[in-house]
Amino acid sequence: MTRRQFLCGWALVLSSLVLVPPGRAGVPDESRPWIAVGRQGMVASDSMYASQAGLEILRAGGNAIDAATATSFALAVTRPYSMGLGGGGFMLVRLGQTGEVFVLDYRECAPRAATADMFVKAREKLAQRTGPEGQERTSAPSAPAVPAPSRYGGLAVGVPGHIAGHAAMLERLGTRSFREVLAPAVRLAEQGFAVDEHYCSIARDSLAKMRDQPELRRIGQGLLKRLLFDGKAPAPGDVLRQPELADTLRQLQREGPSAFYRGTIGQTVVEAVQSAGGILTTEDLSTYRPVWRTPLRIRYRERYELLLMPPPSSGGICVAETLNILENWDLAAVRRRDPSLAAHLTVEALKHAFADRARHLGDADFAPVPVAQLTSKAYAKELAGRIRDTAVSPAAAYGSPPDDSGTSHFCVADRWGNVVSCTETINTGFGSLVVAEPAGIVLNNEMDDFTAEPGKPNAFGLSQSDHNAVVPGKRPLSCMTPTIVLRDGRPVLAVGASGGPIIITATLQVILAVVEYGQPLADAIEGPRFHHQWDPNILYYNQFPADGPLVRGLKARGHELSDRRREAVVQALQIEDDTLTGASDPRKGGRPAGY
Prior knowledge:
The chain is of the alpha+beta class. A hairpin with a 4-residue loop joins strand 12 (435-436) and strand 13 (441-442).
């Protein structure tokens, strides 16, 4: 038996464990392997291996916070194009015994040498060696354009917060050591794992991009060597081993986060960034601190309370504002009568929320953010009054302006009632393409989440204001939307997503499906979703039949529709009585694990 056959067989064993965990309630549904049910603990992530890593810690007596760290570091191994040690994130925790809520912001921040015009100057410098069309001065007239410096290379890298965030959360709420919770990730990195179709698709896209743009190939040499199979497109079942990353994780087990922020791992990261044209320094690393924040809380239809992430996340405010607007209709009754009208109202509410995002939102530690106004019921009622049932509104009604690969979400619940909802990212697929060698760490391109170049949208097409301008130490605006929903004071749903701005619309639609429309979680996760982010003024609907009544109704109301593929990946965990249901979006091939 070959190594590849062995690991593929082991992957099937793991999958069966997810389907039929010991003590599982009910009969497994083999047609939906991305759903699991348990009573004592549950992990829902977009990687089968990562969910099993978290479950291992839960079984050993660790709590949901311990399991969250184990899940996260295993994701860093198995989904290195989505998140990892070179990135950051947001974690939302509700404790079962006390009901206390903790929110930790370990988002990346701008280096100390960063300036508001750094990317404009970088592009001007690049233009000195390019032609009039922004192309490299070469003998070939069709040479590819120079990559955006806010997206690729060292200048795109923000100060990573991932390791500091988990260390802080473990110290405050965890029960296990860094050494114990990192053990599953070490094994995965050293022994290897069988890549799945989602990994292969991202690898193919990345290799094609590098072929089209030689500069990206130069930036991504370490990536090609470590994670892209020496430039050969992998097939599902191929085994990826990361011995260098395993050594890095072992060093973190021995020395703790100081190895990254004040030690040799950090020095390796700084050298890699600076060699790629970046400005990160050892002082940036040594002074980085995660921030404990106060959660946003909104009520929805009296019985429900949502715990949401505050700025620099925009997801919490956008979900709050949208739900507050929709509360002005009996949406379930509208949907039964006319599904296209319910969709229209939801889209119009989202457009108002995204317009406010563009105008007002940024890091509240650096710019004034009118959180109270944007999340107030009175403001939502005013906006609801501008929405017409039969047509879209003129652009001025929403205000004047100022895909999934690089993010991962997971949820954890334990037998003590603790619930974790966590979203982490390196921004776009494989981040900046810079790998810190020999540490094996993929570095983020989070600087593109700032208003990198005034007047130009970021990689996700989002328009943003000066509230989100680059400032040293500032954290860029994010769409990450980790959420916990309470009913009558008890947690019933943890949910979040990956996929840039589609995170917000996808998370919202799953919440509506479960809370407002009473759908089973499996149907809510699997079902089709639409997306609108106000600018561009396009409604993406590719998961719905083009000739179906919902799409026809939206067209009749004047929406400009596109069937271009734009979708997010949602992970969720539902709590009903003494049963935990975990759901990992089949769009990314994840599997939950519970017992």
